[in-house]
Amino acid sequence: MVRHPYTHTLHSPTESLLVLVCGKNFQVVDTNDGSIKASSCDVPEEIKSSVVEIKDGHTDVIRTLAFSPDGKLLATSGEDKSLKIWTVSNWSCLNTRPVIKRYNAINFSTENDMIFVADKFGDVYKLPIDPTTGHEELLLGHVSMTTDMLLTPGNKHIITADRDEKIRVSNYPDTYNIHSFCLGHTEFVSQVRLLSFAPELLVSGGGDGMIMVWDYLNGSLKQAINLREILDQQSCQPITGNHVFVTTLEVSPQNKDVLVLIEKYNNGLVFRWNEASATLDFQQVISLNADPLDGAYDNNGNLWLSYSDKSSDLVVSFKDQDGKYEQSEAKLVNEFGSCEVETLPNLYPTGLLRKITVPEEEINEAEDAEQPKKKAKSE
């Protein structure tokens, strides 16, 4: 038996609570001391009396989750094709509804009264918080899989990213009216985030080894950062492979930082906002003991990272000390947290978004080998 790593991390916008997903379960950690406050999986007897038992959980892997802006609700959805809404105050399940297609992204409206979801078939829907008060409403669709989705402040626009390298900005509620496209990536777009300290700007990353900063209303590219060049300059080497797939983009309003995590690299890259030049400048490479699966900033600007199964510590935290992130003391969650499984699932799904999974040189070799056969048949 092995401990299941935390594949997704999400911090509350209002409280010192960090949600950690492990398979079909999730746990809630107090970021003040690293203690477990609630859990849907079994916890050791010595802490059971202080941990809220989360009931009515998912029956298969949780794919995506989101807090409401006021921090009072949490939405989760998974491979079991269900959407669950949780009340944060006591971690009870407010309601559960079945979904036809698996969701890749969830957002709450600014008013906390509606949920917006994007599914793997390219569609975005609006749903009421209470399923008994209405039905889902189709808002827009892509011809490709939607990989990420967010709402701008005041629900003025819906920004969607897809597997076909596109970022689309749609007006809301008139979503048939496309406001702009942000076009420049040459591979799938995996993550889009608004820069809260420069709200007119959007940062994106994906499978082409670039992060890009956009004036999303005008669809204009403001900055393009080549991650491979930075990784080479910092002597960062991948665990396996030679791809630079962005798995995580997280924005810290407190520090005006952007964290970039890359699949199968034992590093985190931090970029800091430069007010004078209105650009993201490379700040620091964080060297880690294992490859990080996800990361989140807490409300004090501290950074939390979840590790893969190659490390005994599944969660580590870093504090910003004089402009540099330094690792903090070990957290209690590493002693008591996570669930045990016999075998681990695929922890690296981002690369599966590639439309061409066979390297180009292998395709060329296969075509060259096939040419004599075709010629022989024609003769």
From TrEMBL:
Gene3D superfamilies: YVTN repeat-like/Quinoprotein amine dehydrogenase. Keywords: Nucleus, Repeat, tRNA processing, WD repeat. Pathway: tRNA modification; N(7)-methylguanine-tRNA biosynthesis. The keyword tRNA processing applies. SUPFAM superfamilies: WD40 repeat-like. The keyword Acetylation does not apply. WD repeats lie at residues 55-96, 182-224. It is found in: Nucleus. Required for the formation of N(7)-methylguanine at position 46 (m7G46) in tRNA. In the complex, it is required to stabilize and induce conformational changes of the catalytic subunit. Belongs to the WD repeat TRM82 family. This is tRNA (Guanine-N(7)-)-methyltransferase non-catalytic subunit trm82.
